[in-house]
Amino acid sequence: MRTTIIAVFLLLCVTGSSAIAAEKSWHSLTPVQQEALAPLSQQWDKLPELEQHDLLNTASRFPHLTPEQKLRFHSRLETWSKLTPTQRKAAREKYRAFKNVPTEKQEQVKQMVKQEQARREQTMKAQQAADGIPESVRK
Amino acid sequence: MSTNTTDNNRRGINPEAVANLLTRATQQLDSETVTALQRARDVALERQLQKKPVLVLHTGHGVRGLIPHSTHQWVAAAILLVTILFSGVNYWQHTQEHELGHLDAEILADDLPLEVFVD
After folding, report:
1. What tens digit of pLDDT does each residue of B31-44 get?
2. How is chain B split into domains, by residue range?
3. Least-confidence region, from A55-69, B29-43, B54-68, B90-104
4. How far is the C-alpha of B23 from the C-alpha of B18, rounded, in Å?
5. Are A23 and A52 in contact (CB under 8 A)?
6. Which residue of chain B comes nearest to A84, CA vs CA?
7. Is A137 left (phi over 0), alpha (psi -120 to 50) or beta?
8. Residue B98: its chain A contacts at CB < 8 A?
9. B61 at the A interface (CB within 8 A)?
10. What are the backbone dihedrals phi and psi of residue B18, each rounded to the nearest 5 degrees, phi first?
11. What is the per-residue pLDDT across A79-105, written as a single tens digit (0 to 9) for each?
12. CA distance readout (Å), B112 to A85, A109, A119, B25
């Protein structure tokens, strides 16, 4: 009887832990997962199991995104994967808070961010021109 | 005749008169019929007495049946409980992770740059 109980508990522990995290090599991923996580293909096998698990969860939404959103997703994925769990948690909280703000305010913030980005680009271009970097090389 | 019956119904049948009639009729029965009736009554009463305790036991068993008696039953109940709890926790965890994955994907695909949300 005791053996049966131990066996059941071990089984539960094994199935539970496998549900939480199971290391997956890049080649074992499905084509859809590989497409979503393409920017991480080189470092994927070296990522910790939990990190892989989280990213796979995130990647599950990729097929439902628009082409424009997919581009943004890919361009930010590497930066996101390098964040610490605390930074990600803080980012999620900020994002949730932002989504709770009225739409008008959200649009105002978006406008401000766009203006700031344009200003930064102009400053960078001016700086590069002052440094004598040819326009063809400038980003 | 039909008028008489209607009158009787209106007045109602006297139960005492019926009982007296029946008593008188049974007094006229031969001993063999009386014995047969007596036996049938005894059998019916015996059956009724047998059913009562069975019903009481059944009701008691319904409630007690849920409580484990032996060690084996207790262990089985404990395993069942742990399995249910474990499945519940697992399901909750899975849902949380799924929601978090959705949120992360939203942040990554949003038209606002990542720097706005990341310190």
Report:
1. 888 889 889 999 99
2. 1-67, 69-119
3. B54-68
4. 9
5. yes
6. B118
7. alpha
8. 57, 60
9. no
10. -65, -45
11. 999 999 999 999 999 999 999 999 999
12. 21, 9, 16, 104
Residue with tokens 């605390």: A86
A58·B75 Cβ contact <8 A: no
Distances in whole angstroms, Cα of residue A80 to Cα of each of A76, A89, A91, B64: 6, 11, 10, 58
Mean pLDDT of B70-95: 93
B111 touches chain A (CB under 8 A): yes
Hey, what are A16's tokens? Answer: 């539970």
Question: Residue A25 — left, alpha, or beta (φ > 0 → left; ψ -120 to 50 → alpha)?
Answer: beta
| A115 interaction partners in chain B (CB closer than 8 Å) | none
E-strand stretches of chain B: none
Give the gap in angstroms from C-alpha B66 to the nearest C-alpha of chain A.
21
